[in-house]
C-alpha cells in the first residue's frame, strides 16, 4: 500500500486530470533547450526506503527532499552552502567564504531550472517558458542586483559581460569542439533559423551597448557627457526590454516550433523523456522560493568578499567577475550543453549558449539599468572601450562561425582560443575597484550638483 501511495506521489499526486489526459504533447512542445540541458545532469531517485515511512506527510517530505536535493549529479556540492554560512558567522577567511559561496551556487542554479520545469508541467508551456525566460539566469541576475545595491557598478557590468562572453565563446566553443571530435565521421548540422534570430538580437544589443561609448568619445570630456550618456543608456535599455518582450512572444507563441527541443532520438537515455511531475505544484513553488532566497544569501557573500578574494589570490577583480563568476554560476547548464554536443544534438547546445547570451544581453543588462534608475544609482551601458571591444569581436566571430548551419571541431577550437585570449587580457589588466567606485561617486555627485 505504501508503495502505491509513493507511486502516486512520484507521478505528481497534486496534478489534476488535465495534466494526465492528453497534455503530454503540449508539455513536450514546451520543453526548451535549457530544460533539456539541465535534465542531462539529473538522476532518478530510488524511493524504496522512503516508501517504508509510515507517516504520509513525513513520507511526502522525505520524497521531496530526495527528489530536489539528491536528484542531481551535483548534489555533492550542496555541503558548500552550510559551510559558507558557517564561514561567514565564524569570521573565517573572506576568500574561503567567496570560494564556498561560488561552489554552493552551482547546484542551486541547476535546481532552479528543475523546479521551474516542474511548475511548467502544471501551468503549461507558455507560463513555463515565461518562468524559464525570467529564471533561466537567476544566479547572474541576483548577483548583479546585490552588487548594484552595494554600488559596485563595475562588478555588475563585468559579471554580466562575462556571462555573455562565456556563453558565446566558452560554452559554444567547447560544445562545437567536443561534438566535432566525438562525431568526426558525421556531418554535424543545426537549424540556422534559431541561431539567426538570436544573432540578430545580440547585434541589436551590441548596438545599444556601443552607442553610449561612441557618444562619450564623440562628445568631449566624460564629466560633461555623463548625464546625456546616462539618459541615452536608459532609453536604450527600454528599447532592449521591448525587443526582449517581442522575442518572448515570437518564441512562445508565433514561432515556438523553432525553439522547442528536438526529442525524436531516444537512444537509451532518459533525458527529455520525463513528462510527469515528480513533486507537487505548491511543493515546487515553495522549494523555488526557498532556493532563490539561498541564492540571494550566497550572492550577498560573493559580492561582499570579491575584493578580499582578489587581494588574497592575487587576481584582479576584472578577471574574477568576467571569467570565474560566469563559469561557476552556469556550470550545470554549460555541462549539459556539452553533453548534448557529444550526442550530436547541436540544436540543444546552441539553444543553451545563444539563448542564455541573448537573455543576459537583452533582459538582465537593461533590467539592471532600469532598477538602478529606480534606486537612484547612475548605471549606464558604457562598458568602457576594452570590454565593449571584446563584446563586438565575440558576437562577430560567433555569427561567422554559425553562418552556414554546419559545424566541426575547428570552429569550436577557434572560439575557445578567442576566449583564452580574452581571459589572458583580463588576467593581466589591473583595474582597481576602488578607483572605479571613486570615479562613479564623483560623477554621481557632479550630476546631483
Low-confidence stretches: 1-30, 263-274, 433-449
What's the shape? globular
Give the number of helices: 19
Terminus-to-terminus distance: 74 Å
Order of helices and strands: HHHHHHHHHHEHHHHHHHEHH
User: Which structural class fits the helix and strand makeup?
Assistant: mainly alpha
Instruction: Indicate the radius of gyration in whole angstroms.
Output: 22 Å
- Mean pLDDT reading: 78
> What's the total count of β strands?
2
Q: Kindly estimate the percentage of residues that lie in beta strands according to DSSP.
A: under 5%
Supply the number of structural domains: 1
Major sheet attributes: 2 strands, antiparallel
Relative helix content: over 70%
GO biological process, one term: phosphate ion homeostasis
Subcellular location: Vacuole membrane
Family: Belongs to the Ca(2+):cation antiporter (CaCA) (TC 2.A.19) family. Cation/proton exchanger (CAX) subfamily.
InterPro entries: CaH_exchang, CAX-like, NaCa_Exmemb, NCX_ion-bd_dom_sf
